[in-house]
Amino acid sequence: MAVQTTFRRIDSCRVELPESYKPGMRVKGVIYVDEILESGLDQKCLDQVANVASLPGIVGASLAMPDIHMGYGFVIGGVAAFSMDEGVISPGGVGYDINCGVRLLASNLRRHEAAAKIKEVAAAIYREVPAGVGSKGKLRLLHDDFNELLKKGARWAVERGMGTPDDLERTESGGAIEGAEPALISEKAYERGRTQLGSLGSGNHFLEIQYVDQIYEDEAAAAMGLFEGQVTVMIHTGSRGFGHQVCTDYLEEMATAVRKYGISLPDRELACAPVNSPEARSYLAAMRGAANFAWANRQCIMHWTREAFIEAMGISPRELGMRLVYDVAHNVAKIEEHTVNGIKTRLAVHRKGATRAFPPGHPELPQIYRKTGQPVLIPGDMGRVSFVLAGNEKAMHETWGSTCHGAGRMLSRHEAIRRARGRSIYRELEDKGIVVMSAGRETLAEEMSEAYKDVTNVVDVVDKAGISRKVARLRPMAVVKG
Amino acid sequence: MPYEQIEVTGDAGIKACGATVEEAFAAAAEGFYSLLTDTEKIRKEKTIEVKAKGDNPESLLVNFLNELVFIFDTKGMLGKKVAVSSLGNGAIAATISGEEFDPERHPRGLLVKAATYHNLKVESKNGQWELEVIFDI
Can you tell me the distance from the alpha carbon of A71 to that of A159, in angstroms, rounded to the nearest whole number? Predict the structure, then answer.
């Protein structure tokens, strides 16, 4: 359902939702859409952007990226920053899958070298990296180990031989956010997470073998070690049941906090607490543990992917040369320094279905990416393409250093299944030269291309708006799904 | 069947009904299992008891379903038949009859992360209880 003139177009890439849109809005809403994507905006999304704009202590604007779609409380594709003194922390601004994110691996292989063995490689990955409902990873975490993992994140896996220290500087936040407090995480979360490390999950999560089919910016691509025709691997997953339980537990806790602090909310999924309250501090400390779990998870999956390639292709690790390009979180809340009215200020930035995109020169970036800006990884749907972007200075001024995270869903699962009826999505993908390994009975239909916005439109908007810039485009060769 | 799946972009929901609130909650739970697999394929091999608390009917429903999510994620328990033995004073107790997930026999359906409060409905009208709940997938 398209929306009538409730918003004002700022420029070709942005529309503004004025404070008059809905009573209680403290700031305006700004949505990054061009005229093509504007037609897909629905009323419920706008209401959610407006609801977030009404939360205490929100700074600037309630922002949404072009992959905006309806979420719980906050939209998916949403970015909101809150004052450390008057603002709030909301688990709904992060989502159930804490630190759902994307990792991109580069290799020495060229497309034609991998093509002959692509089925074997996909099958080997499918064995090594369990996917789908009820799947368990290869590791079983004991309690002390688990606590260490929650503090160390990806480093935990590297210390166990699954990767190299170099991987950590190529991971957002070094693969671990400081301040995780295992003691603030429920036994239930531990129980759910214990068998799930190193598993992919289901839904829109996937592991894709791809090749670089276009480079847009030579210098940045070279810094990232990317070249045309090169085989890459993209891993999209998060903190699994561990993170889901942390979110579930704290939404319950926050519902109590909302009453305690007298916060009035238009939607229970926006439950939140003042940044400096014990409730918010506890959630952040637990959320950091879940974020670190996700980084360890992606690090383990990268390791097993590398092993699968070596085994299935019968080549040496050196010949394969599989290395990390970067790893980004797209569901997380962080305390970051930004400039507000010319003054450096710490803010609680929530990104839900949005990616951090720090510009060249940002002090949090590792030396290798200081000149290019942070790599940003944008998965598309399984039949089309994915993108590598880089951060731009403009994002620091407009979006708290953030950009989009993916294609953004368009159809419900049922509608996708209906449209796929009588068709073999597997065969259609195969005809395009894409090998598919899928655990679920209907996942393929639900996740088919038409269920999503075209990621190219989404990426074009953030590129044109200048909040990040295109570096490379990747095309799928094989997809492993839950 | 006293439940049906409802459409949500990107996720999945269940609409359940019953002549009593207990029946409606049981139907919602059976509906939840229908998202995970084909319930026809579930055998009644064991029965477990599940308890949950909530200070209003809405949070009782969400917490109850989240308990089932937790039990599935940790023990693989799939329910074919759910019976609510008590519901009231902020607590629910139910028995779940079914078996553990077996990837050889149970088709893999949706992976449910959690039951949410999004557009949640717990209503009684014309002597019929109607529930609607959306799950994050």
Answer: 37
